[in-house]
Amino acid sequence: MVLNIYFRSSYYGYFNLILKEIIHGGYLTALGAPALVLTTSIITKSNINLPLLIISYLIPLIIYSYDYMSDLDKDIESNSDRYEHLHKKKKYYPLLMIFYIIVLIALLIIFSNYKLVLFIILITLGGFLYATVFKGLTKRIPIFKNIYTVLTWSLGGTLFVPLQFSLTLSLPFIIVFIFINMKGMINAIFFDLKDSLIDSKEGLKTLPVILGKKKAIRLLHFLNLVSFIPLVMAVILKIIPMLSISLILFFFYSFYYLSKAETSIDDDIWVKLGSIADFEFIFWPIVLLISLQIFNSHFVI
Fold first, then answer.
1. For residue 235, which of 218, 252, 247, 219 has the smallest C-alpha distance?
2. Where are the alpha helices (DSSP H) in the chain?
3. Between vectors from CA 120 to CA 117 and to CA 126, what angle results, nearest 5°?
4. Phi, psi of 169, deg, nearest 5
5. Would you tell me how many other CB atoms lie within 10 Å of the CB of residue 54?
6. Is residue 213 within 8 Å of 196, Cβ to Cβ?
7. pLDDT in tens, the chain (301 residues)
8. What letter does residue 138 receive in the DSSP assignment?
């Protein structure tokens, strides 16, 4: 009986540790990048392969890991659970980063072309430059952090496919870029809501600091509505396939967590809302693939 309780306790402890590593190590957040690449591939009816998805996953994983460790002291106030977990693995962090980089380089050498490699070098360098040099510009340039990070995500999510397969940057890719950029801006500014007090003390000119929490959320609701206009128009004009209209589901998805944020003051609730916000991009290709099956079945019948 005692042994059984001990093993159950040990099992739960290991499971909890793995779960915390997945959440706080950037593994879940980094899934957003391959999800955007896959979304672009589906909407533009372009090729995709597993190595490209893994490459697109490793890049943000490396950047997020570096960024989390660089801002570890800031997490003491804003995310104490993440701080405690990352602080324990701090000594293993350099080895983990070396492993990520080696795997990324190997995949690029074997499966990629020089155009994609050059582009990846530029956006990866941009990520490190932001974490080390450019972050301070947010003290002088309003919402610089959001514009910079979202532009990087949007370019990566949109251009990986045409660069890898030497495709022309046609109108469907531009529509996808606009949609990703607008929805990404909502996500980025949303995460500034929780840290607005800390950002204000540091002199960072984020949107919640400039407008206040309530007005910032109202603006995000408006941006959430406007972001679907290019998508709907492109479907009506037959620039992108009809299945793309299924992404309208995420208007209600974003509306939900934005509405909850209006009244949320508890840190645990904010962590849950943050996870919901991050999962949105991961769900995009899933909804599109389901829609693709439905449309295919309809036309077969």
1. 247
2. 2-24, 27-30, 32-43, 50-70, 75-78, 80-88, 93-111, 114-132, 144-164, 171-194, 196-201, 207-211, 213-226, 229-236, 249-261, 267-300
3. 145
4. -80, 80
5. 14
6. yes
7. 544 544 444 555 555 556 665 565 667 788 889 999 999 999 999 989 999 999 999 988 887 777 666 655 555 555 555 556 555 666 677 788 888 889 999 999 999 888 999 998 888 787 677 766 666 676 777 778 788 888 888 998 999 999 999 898 899 999 999 999 999 999 888 887 776 656 666 666 777 778 888 888 899 999 999 999 999 999 999 999 999 999 999 999 999 999 888 876 666 676 678 778 888 999 999 999 999 888 776 544 3
8. G
The answer to whether 165 touches 49, Cβ cutoff 8 Å, is no
Could you tell me if 250 and 206 are in contact, meaning their C-beta atoms sit under 8 angstroms apart? Answer: no
Question: Which residue in the block uniquely carries the two structure tokens 């620039």?
Answer: 239
Question: In terms of residues, how long is the chain?
Answer: 301
- How far apart, in whole angstroms, are the C-alpha atoms of residue 55 and residue 180? 19
The model scores a pTM over 0.90: no
Sign of CA dihedral 97, 77, 203, 209: positive
Which amino acid, one-letter code, is at 230? P
- Rounded CA-CA distance 100/16 in Å is 23
- Contacts of 123-127 with CB under 8 Å at 24 or more apart are 123/59, 123/152, 123/155, 123/156, 124/59, 124/62, 124/63, 126/152, 127/59, 127/60, 127/63, 127/66, 127/67, 127/152
Token digits of residue 202: 């540091």
Contact criterion met (CB below 8 Å) for 175 and 234: yes
List CB contacts of 72: < 8 A, sequence separation 6 or more. 83, 86, 87, 90
DSSP 265: -
Give the separation between CA 20 and CA 237, rounded to whole angstroms.
45
